[in-house]
Amino acid sequence: MALPQSLRISVIPPELELIASEQLVEIVPLISMEKTAFISGAYGPLRPPNKSKIPLWMAVNLKMKKKCHIIAPDWLNTEFLQERLIQETSQPAFSSLPFRFAEIAKVILDVASDDLENPDKLRSLLKDLREVRQAKSRDGLKTLDHSELSASHL
To answer: Can you give the residue ranges of the GINS subunit domain (predicted)?
Structure first.
């Protein structure tokens, strides 16, 4: 993605995905693995078919090696996202969504779309949510009074 020069020193989308990858997700392992220690913590043991909670980065790694199935978070389903989209379009306030929902959804959809129900519909709903939220943000910026932002070097 081409960004203006002024924004190139800030956090870029892949970095946000990396940060979001610390979130714990549930998996169904296809292999057995003893408890393993990493810098971020110890995870495991993994015993199929028992579910386990591990960081998203580890789940992605195992999924790419075909060693697990990722279970979608509770909010990553069409009913929940459709409900939030209706709230976004019918109310002036932003609807409540999990922190880093867009980044987590993108990572899971990119790597484990075969583990999700109706991934194309999920992508469409997430895109619609993003567009509605961007429109709300733009409209909100238009209503700002410049006198309220008169701090030097802001």
So the answer is: 75-147
